[in-house]
Write a structure and sequence with these properties.
heterodimer; A: 466 residues; mainly alpha; 2 domains; B: 250 residues; Rossmann fold; six-stranded mixed beta sheet; four-stranded antiparallel beta sheet; globular
């Protein structure tokens, strides 16, 4: 089994590209985050502005939470990409089960895949993170003559490496779980992934989703209350955030199906749009997985924007009466850089998730597409079908993401700085326009390659025996 | 072929060759095929796997271009058409029945039947809908229209696929091993339906098969071997066909 796992990884490295990319992005982000905390703490200690240590506590809780968010995001996206990869290999795996591989062996093999993905991603990401941190420090130095140096510390490298490898191995195993239990009999049937036990569990998933989300809300409320007396309230609110987002992911098929249904029923114009809607509805689990990858990215962006705006306002009041303006400016600039990096990280994660899911869905539907082409779906219609799927999914993901992001940003900011007074969430209409517009633009771009790939499938493939 | 000259020609092919691969070891799947398919008849193209019958079907049905030679559907030449024109031509003038049914899993039986019209973006005319209803009735699918393919038996799925092919009243229906994935009872039923379509509605049908039972519904049997036509006769019962095939092969 071990050999199989590694040989698979070598021969189908392209399938894992999305997972490796996400791990690398997370590792780079973790390095950058740890390094900026390190540098910050140094600045604070030298300047002595943080008399009460409030900023230090805030910094550590925010740092821990940001890291937690990155890890959670990585876990969600990696298990998603693995689930997609394994769904595409259903026939292979069923065949392995047929010749006697146990479900445990399949999962162990997937953990090894995950381990390798984690190692590769961590190596790339940590290198990139160190380079980015060095560049960011240089930027701050030239802009403000700050004279900051790179603060070397073993945990800057070790922590991201360990986290990435462990998280990838576990998420790979989780992602492969549903496929590992696939029956031997499935090997006898032909290749499409529709053999997965997909929509049957939607009802149960809805129940779990609601339970987790409600638990999360309770923790977040407690966090905001605790935040009125200490910045550590964020540490109470964070598990609430984790519970609620896991709840959203678990219940995603139940949540997204009615939305997709409502949107796709309104589509007029051509058969390709009807087909797009039908595809999204049929594969409700795959659709939900794609929606989640966009949702995660948009949630992060919105959360950082909302919380970032609120933090900065609070920081200005906190520092305003104590120190000179240039030190505040420095602080704010670095915070803004961190928020920018977080935003790009989120956009990357969303785009990778959307693109890889679309490509996989085209791969898995090769035969269906060949059938449609032989029955008269033109190349242009095929492209528009994939495009419509991409845009619908992205818009639903972005809309849900904005709602969640506002909630998390609001909770996060108040749980950390509530002591300074309760702040309502602020969101500019321009942000909404930019986010939804961005989601549409990205989804159009993400559909180009899969759409092209769909048209390279020869219609004659519909005739091939399975 | 002379016996068919008085019939209108639905599909004709001249000098068709098809070569796969290049360089050292190209595979010649078709080596010079001349064939006229008579309108309103069932023509069976027989051969073992590797004989070139599937490649010939792809070329005749505009699913793949020949390396050399020309193909006509009625008066319209297929060879040299752009992908878009070929696609529209398949949609409007041809029907397909596949071995593995190839219904779209996302659509109900009724939606699968209307798929060609859905792709064309037009509404189904009342006259056309009446025709579809009649076919659905005849094929015993009335109760099954709202089912998804996964809820239908193999025989039912193939009947839906045949309805889909008949719905547009295409000039030619190409059926590729239509009984290959069915038990013998469902298989005979499907063959009877194709035969009926030809006899009662004058539907032109081209069946690709290795099975003499399937070929027995044909008015004419064309046997292929190694990329060329080796036999061409008026068919007969399954036993007669099997014997003639065995005799020739020996």
């Amino acid at each position: 089994m071990r050999l199989w796992a590694f040989r698979e990884l070598r021969t189908s490295a392209g399938r894992y590209a999305a997972s490796v990319a996400v791990v690398a992005v997370v590792a780079a982000f973790a390095v950058l985050l740890l390094e900026s905390i390190e540098v910050f703490v140094g600045v604070l200690e030298r300047s002595g502005v943080d008399g009460g240590g409030l900023v230090r506590i805030a910094l550590f809780s925010v740092g821990a939470v940001f890291l937690g968010i990155a890890v959670l995001t990585a876990a969600i996206v990696i298990s998603g990409t693995f689930a997609t990869v394994y769904a595409g290999r259903l026939t292979d795996i069923a065949l392995l089960r047929l010749v006697g591989a146990t479900s445990r062996q399949v999962r162990r093999a997937s953990r090894l895949d995950g381990l390798a993905v984690g190692l590769a991603g961590a190596a790339i990401g940590i290198t990139a993170g160190i380079l980015l941190s060095t560049a960011a420090i240089a930027v701050v130095n030239t802009a403000y003559g700050a004279g900051l140096g790179f603060a070397w510390s073993a945990h800057i490298v070790l922590l991201p490496a360990v986290v990435c490898v462990v998280v990838s191995a576990l998420s790979a195993s989780v992602g492969a779980r549903r496929v590992a239990v696939v029956s031997q009999a499935a090997a006898m049937h032909s290749g499409s992934a529709s053999g997965l036990p997909s929509s049957s569990g939607v009802g149960r998933r809805r129940g779990w989703g609601i339970a987790l989300f409600s638990t999360g809300l309770v923790f977040m409320a407690l966090g905001v209350l605790a935040g009125l007396s200490s910045p550590a309230g964020l540490l109470v609110a964070f598990p609430g955030g984790v519970f609620s987002i896991v709840g959203v992911i678990v219940g995603a098929p139940a949540l997204t199906v009615p939305l997709i249904e409502a949107i796709s029923r309104r589509l007029r114009g051509g058969g390709e749009y009807v087909l797009a809607g039908a595809n999204l509805r049929l594969n409700s689990v795959r659709t939900a997985r794609t929606v989640v990858s966009v949702l995660i990215g948009v949630t992060l962006i919105t959360m950082f924007t909302v919380a970032g705006g609120m933090y900065l306002a609070q920081l200005r009041t906190y520092f305003g009466d104590q120190v000179q303006v240039d030190q505040v400016a420095q602080f704010v600039t670095v915070m803004l850089i961190v928020v920018d990096v977080l935003t790009s990280f989120s956009v990357l994660v969303a785009a990778i998730g959307l693109g890889s899911n679309l490509s996989m869905s085209v791969l898995q539907r090769r035969r269906e597409i060949a059938v449609l082409r032989s029955l008269g779906l033109t190349a242009g219609q095929a492209r528009r079908m994939i495009l419509a799927e991409s845009v619908i999914v992205a818009v639903v993901g972005a809309a849900l993401g904005v709602i969640l992001g506002v909630l998390y940003g609001f909770v996060g900011a108040n749980a950390t700085f509530g002591i300074q007074g309760f702040t309502p969430p602020v969101l500019s209409p321009w942000f909404l326009v930019a986010t939804l517009g961005g989601a549409v633009v990205f989804s159009v771009l993400a559909s180009i390659l899969p759409g092209h790939r769909a048209n390279t499938i020869p219609p004659a493939e519909a005739l091939r025996e399975t | 072929m002379t016996s068919q000259t008085h019939l209108a020609v639905a599909v004709s092919a001249r000098g068709i060759t098809k070569t796969f691969g290049r360089g050292e070891a190209p595979v010649q799947a078709l080596r010079g095929i001349d064939l006229d398919i008579a309108a309103g008849q069932v023509t069976a193209i027989m051969g073992q796997s590797g004989s070139g019958k599937s490649t010939l079907l792809q070329v005749l049905a505009g699913l793949d271009a020949p390396t050399a030679g020309r193909v006509w559907l009625g008066q319209k030449e297929l060879t040299g058409l752009r992908d878009e024109e070929l696609t529209l031509l398949r949609r409007e003038r041809l029907g397909f029945v596949f071995q593995s049914f190839n219904l779209l899993p996302a659509l109900t039986a009724a939606e699968n039947i209307r798929l060609p019209f859905l792709l064309a973006g037009g509404r189904v005319t009342a006259e056309r809908q009446a025709w579809i209803d009649a076919v659905v009735e005849r094929l015993g699918l009335v109760e099954r229209l709202e089912h998804r393919p996964s809820e239908l038996s193999g025989g039912q799925q193939q009947r839906v696929a045949i309805t889909r092919a008949l719905a547009t009243r295409p000039e030619v229906i190409f059926a590729d091993e239509p009984t290959g994935a069915l038990d013998s009872a469902s298989g005979s039923e499907v063959l009877a339906l194709l035969r009926t379509a030809s006899v009662e509605d004058g539907q032109t049908v081209v069946v690709i098969t290795h099975d003499s039972g399937t070929a027995s519904i044909a008015d004419r049997v064309v046997r292929m071997h190694d990329g060329v036509i080796v036999d061409d006769w008026a068919g007969g019962t399954a036993e007669q066909i099997a014997q003639r095939v065995l005799g020739k092969a020996a």
